[in-house]
Amino acid sequence: MILGPNGSGKTTILEGVGFFAFGRFQSVRGDFSAVSRGEEAGTLEAEIFVDGGKKHSRIAITRSQNIVKIEENRIPSSKIIGFIKAVFFNPETVNLVFGSPQLRRRELDLVIAQSEKNYVEDLLRYKNILKQRNNLLRRISLKLAKKDELGFWDNELAREASAIIKARTKLIAKINRGISEVHGRLSERESKLKTKYIPSTDYERFGEALVASYDQDLKEGNTAVGPHRDDFEFVEANVALRDQASRGEQRIAAVSYKLRTMSYLEEATGEKAVMILDDVFSELDSQHREAVAKVLGENQTFISSTDDRAMPESLRRRAKEIVLE
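Above: the chain sequence. Below: its structure as tokens.
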């Protein structure tokens, strides 16, 4: 439990833990933004104790790049993703149900990247091809290239999209096998909560969809359909929570999703996930604070708050307190 006033560094500490799971800070645009003013670099170090052994990792964050080592071996910065397994809560992600589609896509991708070794490479290849296609669209609009040059990039985009869609829909199915049970325990009632993937197009006919959206794509200089435009929603009794549920009910659904992803990561990898809760309990009422505390289990958990009175008593009794001035 990390306590301290706003600006004392609580979030930086928690995000430093999360860096070893996600490969980046979550609430700043660039990782270097977390480095102290006037410094040319910052360093993160972690010792991970798992399966009776110990692993050490060190990350140097500079303006131009992140330099990552596991033990003494330098690795590409993307390879640090999943070094530990973690689930990250902050006030933004508690608003997962009614937040932006980009936030929900990122949530799916962060979980898959920790549990499937090649997923980051799949995403990077897709994003690179998407960038090339969008650049070509702009060149065509300026009459610097021809429309028939798109065929190659359309085929490449469709090929790379298939792996992403397969991984995301697989995760959604896994999440749905337990999310209603978690949600029922938090809301103290019978629950039928599910998540539903919302594709931006019919991927069985993705190539045709790209052709059909050509005029719109050319006008906007961007690709209108694909995994980068997909979404998912929370549904109970065939009703989308984004439209019908109260703000409090939406937040509990988001917390249920996070807790279910925690157990999924353990199922998929055999490792317990670290829980990171950055000023989350202040967003919940007292009843739901205690409910969340009960289902956290024995996973290692980092919690920040400006006020320990927002913490459930059951957590305060067994927490180690670190107070920041």
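The chain has a mean pLDDT of 92.
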